[in-house]
Amino acid sequence: MVAFGLYDAAFSTLGRLLGQDAKTAIVGVTLLGGLASTIGWALIVFFEGLYGWRISCFILALFHLLLGLPLHYFLLPREEQSTETHAKELNNQTTVHKEGNRLFMLVAIILTVQSFVVATISVHLLSMLKTIGFSVSTALAIGMMIGPAQIIARLLEFSLFKNLHPSWSSRVGVLISFFGIIFLFTDGYVLALLGAALYGAGNGILTIIRGTLPLALFGQEGYATRMGLLGRPIMIALAFGPLISAFILEKWGINILLMILIALVLIALIGTLKLPVHQAEKVAE
């Protein structure tokens, strides 16, 4: 149920409503989402300190029920679907597999591999930094660079690079993440700060790409179905990435884990180089 509240549902809705013009709106949603999470964490800490975690969860649930649900219900425009349109949408999943299967699989691999890396670093960042010699306070300071860098990257994507094709944005995002991971886990505070900033910026761009790339490559028709199909392996990677990485970290150490993460990002980078850069209604044919 939690997945209904993540970016995928919002991206699918924007793609349905705005079509190829949804990129700016998707970037805006991720930008506001980053700011909202910053405020949200502060609120959670505040409520938890006053009322405990159970009451805090209840308050957050009320926010969803009394604020989020009415906003979505009353503000989102509705579409009257004809029988023909409804039947067409029911066949979208079959269409996805018939049209552009190789390209779709390539996009799925890129996003899934990157999600595995992001999940691993999100959960194990502090312990990995401590393993290579940073103190807890220094590791926290390094980790705090990631959030602001994500927001700055999304602002740039929203303004200066709003006309850049998502295939190019994905290449930039993965490349920046690649160098970010290398610098992040070096034995030097300044380089680690730079690495955290680069990794955060790359991750900020790639969050946007998750919504804009399928829309640009495959078009509006069947977009929600494609987002659902892409979301399945991504969610698996997000769920099992930290567990697998914890096992590797415990069994073979940080160097092996870092080599695996760098290799995965290289796979994603090579995949982005194979993405087409034209606006495709017919890419999938």
Automatic annotation (TrEMBL):
<feature type="transmembrane region" description="Helical">
    <location>
        <begin position="191"/>
        <end position="217"/>
    </location>
</feature>
<feature type="transmembrane region" description="Helical">
    <location>
        <begin position="25"/>
        <end position="47"/>
    </location>
</feature>
<feature type="transmembrane region" description="Helical">
    <location>
        <begin position="103"/>
        <end position="126"/>
    </location>
</feature>
<keyword id="KW-0812">Transmembrane</keyword>
<keyword id="KW-1133">Transmembrane helix</keyword>
<feature type="transmembrane region" description="Helical">
    <location>
        <begin position="254"/>
        <end position="273"/>
    </location>
</feature>
<feature type="transmembrane region" description="Helical">
    <location>
        <begin position="229"/>
        <end position="248"/>
    </location>
</feature>
<feature type="transmembrane region" description="Helical">
    <location>
        <begin position="53"/>
        <end position="76"/>
    </location>
</feature>
<feature type="transmembrane region" description="Helical">
    <location>
        <begin position="168"/>
        <end position="185"/>
    </location>
</feature>
<protein>
    <recommendedName>
        <fullName>Major facilitator superfamily (MFS) profile domain-containing protein</fullName>
    </recommendedName>
</protein>
<dbReference type="InterPro" id="IPR036259">
    <property type="entry name" value="MFS_trans_sf"/>
</dbReference>
<keyword id="KW-0472">Membrane</keyword>
<feature type="transmembrane region" description="Helical">
    <location>
        <begin position="132"/>
        <end position="156"/>
    </location>
</feature>
